[in-house]
What we know:
Elements: E1 2-4, E2 9-14, E3 23-26, E4 50-55, E5 61-67, E6 78-84, E7 93-101, E8 110-112, E9 128-134, E10 143-144, E11 151-155, E12 158-164, E13 169-170
Parallel strand pairs: 1-6, 7-9
Antiparallel strand pairs: 2-4, 3-5, 5-6, 7-8, 10-13, 11-12
Amino acid sequence: MRARRGEELRVRLVNDLATPTSVHWHGIRLPNAMDGVPALTQPAIAPGASFDYRFRPPDAGTFWYHAYVAGQTDRGLAGVLIVEDAQPVDLDRDVALMLTASPAAAGPPVLVNGAARPDIAVKSGERLRLRIINATTSRGLFLKLAGHAVRVMAIDGQPAEPFLARDSRVG
């Protein structure tokens, strides 16, 4: 999902599940009534009901959203929200990578956009912006992009003065 900084984002959640749900927007400054934490910032959305999330993201960056009811995020009820700024970064390609744990495995492997071993083709000299989201919900991760000059441009969705990652590792 993409939005522009300062413009209204409208998302209608229709709950077709057999259990209540809601959507929590990670890292976004928004009105409390839109934060999606059942019994704290909004009532849970009952099966068959709907709710309209409406807010204006004040910050550009990489964010994510997920169901707040236990177990629903691990079953895939999550996604990426990219809030774009008026001045885009000069690059060749923008790639979002959502890291999750497979709930079906006993020792859950980390999946990237749902795949155990994703293949992201890169051309020589191509400049990619990797928007990496750790949505595993219970583990810290370190990534190494061997053979590449990795520059960190943002931390926790917020812009940072770009710097080279030591040993091409981020985490």
